[in-house]
Automatic annotation (TrEMBL):
Keyword Transferase among UniProt keywords: yes
InterPro entries xrefs: HPr-like, HPr-like_sf
Residue ranges annotated for the HPr domain, each copy included: 11-71
UniProt enzyme class: transferase
Name of the molecule in the record: Phosphocarrier protein HPr
An MF annotation (GO) of this entry: transferase activity
Keyword Ribosomal protein among UniProt keywords: no
Gene designation per UniProt: ptsH_3
Origin: domain of life: Bacteria
EC numbers: 2.7.11.-
Keywords linked to the UniProt accession: Transferase
Length: 82
């Protein structure tokens, strides 16, 4: 994994940790807690497309912030409306 990807993982996790909401990425049958750097390191691939699930009191703000940080690092996510 390149240092650019490492920077993306750290920024994604730091951004997620600013919110009280639960923020989870779904990839195939895997669910990744975005607040966990280790979880991101083991599963985040730049060529993949992920579903973003956000639940909690600040979900709308969290979705917007996560979309911005993923976009900044050229990672594709689908924001899932549950």
């Amino acid at each position: 994994m390149t240092s650019a990807n490492n920077a993306a993982i750290v920024e994604i996790s730091q951004t997620a940790n600013k919110f009280r909401s639960s923020i989870v990425l779904q990839y195939d049958n895997k669910y990744i807690d975005v607040k966990s750097i280790l979880g991101l390191f083991t599963t985040l691939l730049t060529s993949s497309n992920y579903d973003l699930h956000v639940h909690g009191p600040d979900a709308e703000e969290a979705k917007k912030a996560m979309a911005e940080v993923f976009n900044k690092h050229n990672l594709q996510i689908n924001s899932i409306q549950d």
